[in-house]
Design brief:
180 residues; mainly alpha; 7 helices; 69% helix; 0% strand; globular
Amino acid sequence: MDLSRRAILGVPLAATLTSCAGIALTPTQIITAAGTVAKGLAGALTQVASVDPNLIPAGMLATLQSDLTLAQGAASSLSTSLPATSGASIAQTIDGYINAVLNTLAAPPVNGLIPAPFNMAIAAAALVVPEIEAFVNQYLPTASAVAPATYAARLQLVQAAPQVGTVDQALAILKGYAGS
């Protein structure tokens, strides 16, 4: 695998995003966050498509929305009454769908070039996903590691909207788009 210098250099910095200030979200917060990320991203992408129908190719947008619909369905099955390992397994599934969306948005033809203010929702999702992964890794230590390319993609998306700096800010932004 031939990683670009930018991707290689971005991995250590992106890895620091995995535990924003060392504060892990509780299982209840993870349940809320997982659904909020999936709904917020879906809402933001719907708005991007209405503002600039040519930015994201129609087929790609359909795939992204399908992934987010699957993530929302999985998120709706999370509850505090689930055993931790079951909840972590579902959260891992949600994480996979959201990472697929973020990877797609960071790659050609979009290249992370989502216009403001929608780029804030994308950056917000990229900030929250590591919190979901930290939860998964807490209960499923054999969970697979995130690929360096995924770290690089998330870093690219976060850097596109530097005003999104905390998980709380990120969730507030995504909640705004979740109602869309």
